[in-house]
Amino acid sequence: MEYVGYLASILIGISLGLIGGGGSILTVPVLVYLFTVDAVTATAYSLFIVGLTSAVGSFEYFRKGLVNIRTAIVFGIPSIVAVFFTRAYIVPAIPKEVFSVGSFTVTKNILLMVLFAILMIAASYSMIKKDTTPSVEITGKQKFKYPMILLEGLVVGVLTGLVGAGGGFLIIPALVVLSRLPMKEAVGTSLVIIAAKSLIGFFGESSETIINWGFLLQISAFAIGGIFIGAALSRRIDGKKLKPAFGWFVLVMGIYIIVKETLFA
User: Fold this and answer.
1) pTM tops 0.70, yes or no
2) Which pLDDT tens digit goes with each residue over 242-256?
3) Quick one: which of 6, 42, 43, 51 could link to 31 by a disulfide (CB 3.0–4.6 Å)?
4) What is each CA distance from 144 to 74, 149, 175, in whole angstroms?
């Protein structure tokens, strides 16, 4: 299963390079089901892997001038604060046994995995549905809808902190609608935000989590290698055509996790 896990780690990076996101949503299931890492540690590892791969993926966007630094700061600050607070205080405060229904006990691991599966299903919908996000061109001085950006940044930050996913499927539409960025610039800016909040959240991790750096760097290396493969493939394959198929796969995975964690725990 470890070999399958390493292959899946490459696919995470390929997804990021080929369709501009989505791969990070598979990081936690890969760690939990293929490498048998417990859910709490997996969400911490995922923050590092997602953050590092997003940072590498953003270099090309920086080179092409497709990163809006001001937007990254405005949107990123509340998100970074939320993810740091969540990893440092909220996650450690969740009891190991959350509640019981009859003979079934919802543990901390089960709660995080079910929450993650719900996020996967939400992400799959954004991949499957036809993209109707308006194409926006910035004219004149850029205006920010600060209250909505603050709220969106906090929500994305808390979700990232809880389940270790980058949340690009939430950030990109928000940047287009609330910050009026063109789509390509929104993708590049999103990668920078994801990299910053994920890595800061990881390094704000509770000291109770034991980090296996050798394993973590191995997985990250495979995922980063996948980014370059995906970027090369994107020159020959239209990633937008693959996005719905990947969305259906993520949907099936999300349903599988809910069934496995609740019926076969």
Assistant:
1) yes
2) 778 888 888 999 999
3) 42
4) 9, 8, 10
